[in-house]
Write a structure and sequence with these properties.
251 residues; seven-stranded mixed sheet; 8 helices; Rossmann fold; methyltransferase; 2 domains; alpha/beta; methyltransferase activity; Methyltransf_25
């Protein structure tokens, strides 16, 4: 599951018994050698879809971690790119390792639930971070994203179809979420990370309530399931208004 450069079982246990912020500070130096990092195949597929929709001017990577998604933004944004995360350790690694070609990159430490930006971005992306937000936090989170986007701006992120109930993956994720709930019932501070809490129907509803026009685009690189549904979708939530640049994403 982990490469030899990844964290030891003891290091993972210490992280899991910490707060989310402290846990990621500890994990940061080895994070890119774990399965938690967004796979390059997902980053490439999202980048291809956004290139067809762009170009954009300013982009924000929400909960950027060690900066895996910054390269996606650098490939579609012309003026500047910003990564924001609340873990100082993850941002330190990002500053050291990420040197993308393209527009200048800045790094900001902040909580996604209280973003310190004016509406200056044309595109916000996020990769693999939504399990850290409880369902009741989605309205506030999406309101924050809306607040930093210009009229016509877009919020885009990949969403993997949940595994079928009969599959090993389903039971693995269910077991992980149950362990985390027991851990959080018995131990403080809480470590919020639930793989099954971010559901497509909830996402669509809360984005619409936040004022977004929501579209779904199948990412063809990952194929379709037996029932014909996409294995991976790109969720594109667009604000009404005239975008600052030509281009839009079609489902």
């Amino acid at each position: 599951m982990f490469s030899p450069e990844g964290p030891s079982l003891r290091e993972l246990a210490v992280q899991a018994l910490s707060s989310v912020e402290r846990g990621y500070d500890l994990l940061a130096p080895k994070f890119d050698h774990t399965p938690f990092r967004t796979p390059e195949a997902v980053l490439d597929a999202v980048g291809s879809a956004l290139r067809r929709a762009g170009p954009f001017d300013a982009g924000l990577d929400l909960c950027c971690g060690t900066g895996a998604g910054i390269g996606v933004l650098a490939g579609v944004c012309r003026e500047r790119v910003t990564g924001v995360d609340f873990s100082a350790g993850m941002l330190d690694v990002a500053r050291q390792r990420v040197r993308p070609d393209g527009p200048p990159v800045s790094w900001v430490r902040a909580d996604a639930r209280a973003l310190p930006f004016a509406p200056v971005f044309d595109l916000v992306v996020s990769f693999g971070a939504f399990g850290h937000f409880l369902p009741r936090e989605l309205p506030g989170l999406f309101a924050q994203v809306r607040s930093v986007l210009r009229p016509g701006g877009s919020f885009a992120f990949p969403l993997v179809a949940p595994p079928r109930p009969a599959s090993p993956g389903y039971w693995m994720l269910l077991g992980f979420d149950m362990v985390m709930r027991v851990r959080n019932a018995l131990w403080r501070p809480a470590f919020v990370m639930y793989y099954r809490a971010f559901r497509l129907g909830d996402v669509r509803r809360e984005l619409a309530l936040a004022g977004f026009e929501v579209e779904f685009q199948a990412l063809p690189e990952f194929g379709r399931r037996r029932d014909g549904s996409p294995r991976v979708r790109l969720v594109v939530a667009r604000l009404p208004g005239q975008p600052a640049r030509p281009g839009s994403v079609n489902s």
